[in-house]
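Late entry, evening session. Most of the bench is empty. Finally got around to the prediction I had been postponing all week. Sequence below, unchanged from the version circulated by S.P.
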Amino acid sequence: MGHRLTMLAGRVRAFLRSKRGNVAMMFGLAIVPLMIAAGVGLDLTRAMLVRQQMGEALDAAALALGSTSGGLTQAQANSLAQSYFSANYQVDQSSFGTPTLAAFTWTPGSGTVQLSATDNMPTVLMKIAGINNMSVNASSTVVWGQSKLWVALVLDNSGSMANGDSGGSKMAALQNASNQLLTILKNASATPGDVQASIVPFVSDVNVGTSNASASWLDFSQDWSQPPLTNASTNTHQQDTDTMPVGGDPLDSFGPGDKCPYDGSRGYKCAPTPVNDTHCYTGSGSDDCIANIPSSGTYKGYICPSMHIGGTTTDGMGYHFYNGCWEQTTSSGTVTVSSCTNHPGGNCSCSSGTCTTKKWPHTWVANSTSTWDGCVWDRQQNYDESNATPSSGGTMFVPENMLYCGTATVTPLGYDWTNLTTQINAMSPYGATNQAIGIAHGWQTITPGAPYGAPSVPTNTARYIILLSDGQNTMDRWYGNGSTERSTPDASIDAREEATCDAAKADGVIIYTILLDIPAGSESPSAPLSYCASDSSKYFVLTSTTAIVTTFNQIAQQITDVRVSH
């Protein structure tokens, strides 16, 4: 018996000392917590995916609310937020659960909105530990906008905007993009009037509208109603000196039935009436010029010159049409001119190399300003580079009657969004390019006072100019002829544009510039557009018409400043 007890005790001691099977036993004991740990990792990864997707969907919903005009009820805000959240939540809800958008307070005009959501996500492996769901939470806060925003759209309406690519014409794309931008601006205003816009269509000039014919900031005497120039030293007419006699007043020697005194080698003739919509232009196409001064009828004896040629940087008259006539009644005595051969009239009696003809007194009578087509030219240098209030002299705006008068008119700063859209849709391609005058008038529309009547700039107001053009400058009041690019005269226009941009930026205006380089490489680079942008991120070169909408939307998003705060 004692022997058996001794053997049993030895076996017990051996069992206790044995290490065989420990790994299997330990694995068996550890497998449950290992599976729970793996489940936690998997389900945490799933929760992170859900949280990311919820965050992105909340951002989209909050941005949608921030981009509205603020005129929503709480119920409408709830519905809009839920629709955007649902549309942007891209997770299988059967596996990951259905998130719930938490209640929020919609306060129009507050400039901020905060949204949050919760998802009771079903677990996969954590169920082993009895954990069937995980709570996943996400939130988004969006703030928007300057409290007030003024935007001037300065848009090229030159003839080349009729061209385009497979996406359509540049003008059609610009109109579409501009209308979308106006919608974004409208929706960014928490209170009507906080966001306002102006439109400045430009060619070589800008059309301020004929309704301003009596405005105090216009000076018709500088250009529009000017008679043809006279050479002070010889008292001779300067329009076509190759046809004029030397010495004396040639106009007094021309009367009814005589040849038009401007019928020279350059081809510029007399218009048949004081008001002539075609301006008797013989440069291209048909015209209604006349060869002789009328000898009967209402305009008997009227000498109505057509176009001034040979303009210089000092007189600023190149390619300007005259808006009036030399009018005469009856002859008074005779006048002698020094050369019969140089006198193109038909009523000259020659003797001993001199010509004696009837003397016809003339008076220059400018057309009524009611016949003005609404276009203005650059102001006198250097007021064309500033936003000085027009008061007198060179500060005044200069009505003109040019070959390239644009049809679309300037729309002053305002928030009648229907009217702004109408004006965008009224734009039509025509004429030459003068970006400098577009910038100048865009700046004026967001400058208090005349000519466009903007009020004092409210506190916390950001002012922007968005300038779009599809080419190079070709013509202003002093330089270029409308058909050249990258020439010395056109570079002078570029310099004036850059000086204007410098002054506007110094005044606190932020400038975006856009070059339509269609086809690609045809117009790029544009030194003045690149220079005028407030920084390199605000200069865009577009090579397709479809890119206009994308770019305008990008700019609109930036300037309305609707953004996710956190």
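Two things to note before I forget:
DSSP finds ten helices and 26 strands in the chain.
The first strand starts at residue 100 and ends at 101.
Will write this up properly tomorrow.
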